[in-house]
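Entry 12.
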Amino acid sequence: MKSLRLLATLIAAVALHVPAAAVPAGPVVDAPAGKVQGKSEGDLNIFKGIPYAVPPVGQLRWKAPQPLPRWDGVKHATAFGPSCITPTPGPQKSVYSGDPQPESEDCLTINIWTPKNARNAPVFYWIYGGALWSGTSRDPLYDGAALAKRGVIVVSINYRLGVLGWLAHPALSAENPDGISGNYGLLDQIRGLKWVRQNIAAFGGDPKNVTIAGESAGGLSVMYLMVSPQARGLFAKAIAESAYMISMAELKAPNHGMPSGEQIGLALQAGARAHDIAALRAIDPHALTDAAAIAGFGPFGVVDGKVLPEQMVTAFDKGDQAHVPILAGFNQGEIRSLRVLAPPPPATAADYEETIRAKYGDLADAFLKLYPSSDMAESVIETSRDALYSWTAERLVGKQAALGIPSYLYEWDHGYPAMDKAGLHAFHASELPYVFGNANATPALWPKIPATAGERALSDAMADYWASFAKSGAPKAAGAPDWPAFGTVKAYMHITDTPRPSTDVLPGMYALNEAVVCRRLAVGNVAWNWNAGLVSPPLPPRATGCE
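Predicted 3D structure (tokens):
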């Protein structure tokens, strides 16, 4: 009887044109891409899972992303789209391990957090990290609400990962009018920026004031975008957190101790027992991704002469990069959560010194002064940190500053009880909950951030600095010190329990690593990436212009 009465009530409501249960409609934006309906939360309008390109499936696997035609009707944008395909997680957990997410090759979606009153607001374009193997814009850590409440529009995207996003192959190059292949994940990021340029004004944003930002592989992506001619003019500022300016494979020929990108693709095809590119396209995307990961495929950009015209180091040396203000930095404990990037210390201090002298030759004294044998365990992880992250951050900021561009450097050196007890002081990515104001959204094994006034104040300062930089190109925070530009005094912000302006981060570190990379680049047959310290190849001889 209850069901009959309910049915009668519903029928009567329809007859009277009165909704039986009023459901508030979310905000609708009529953008050039089409109409989208999101949801309101307080002073924000939020849109999730908006497609920004044709799904790269079937014959479009390993193709540049194609723009979508304007859709008809209203597209509901209240839920994140699926993540791009990532390798199946192994049994070993880490501080980064999170819950499984829905995945699909049809993953090229964009999310937007915008203040309800936004008018010509600055845009913060977030690119997630994950070694170009993993990551997703639906990660709760990247929720953009706290930053958006500071008057910026936060945009995050998904981009293709692993073998599906970064495979180069001669057959794929033959399909391309420019004769190139690879870099599909980067092309996704560029397509997302073009979507923002065309559509963000409808959401209240300023398409001429876009800041690209990312951490780890997201920071690497920021550098790719800075040196890519195809991204030029699509952004006005850049933020690179824990980026790494490593060497890249050339598309067609071996270089710097690496096979060509196309050779790597052919080796992967052989390992997959696929007789041609059509057979590779027919393999299940999850199975192919797992097989490529097991085989040791490295998803990185390739120098193809078009999308990435030259090595990042060379581009920044020549001034070929985007001339935009930059904020960049590194974490004091980068390697504490990435021990795989550092070799084990040898048995004795004498063994350590003997190995370093054999590897570094005339630079061994400078190396041992920075990374002494008296604390080998710490020296080993600091060696890897500096070769990858610290040197890159100072190089990015220094090269922009030399062009007269506002540039800001930081060292994240903050710890709290649970973090330090776990031996993870200032570990890789530990600044992210503070930047995004999402201390309660960290993965389960992440050391719990205490809910204290001091931690909240630091998070407020970080979010203020990042939002201010996106607005004006100058990081400022309420109640916190002004952030000095790098300039000629090599100023930086040392962020411990509070931000503290200082000068000359890690004295001697930059000069040593710059000399090492310069010599390796000059000799032409040695890579520069994780091969530092105890696992370094013998240092090439002194080269003109290197020291």
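Annotation: The chain has two domains: 1-56+78-87+101-324, 340-425+443-547. The longest strand covers residues 205-215.
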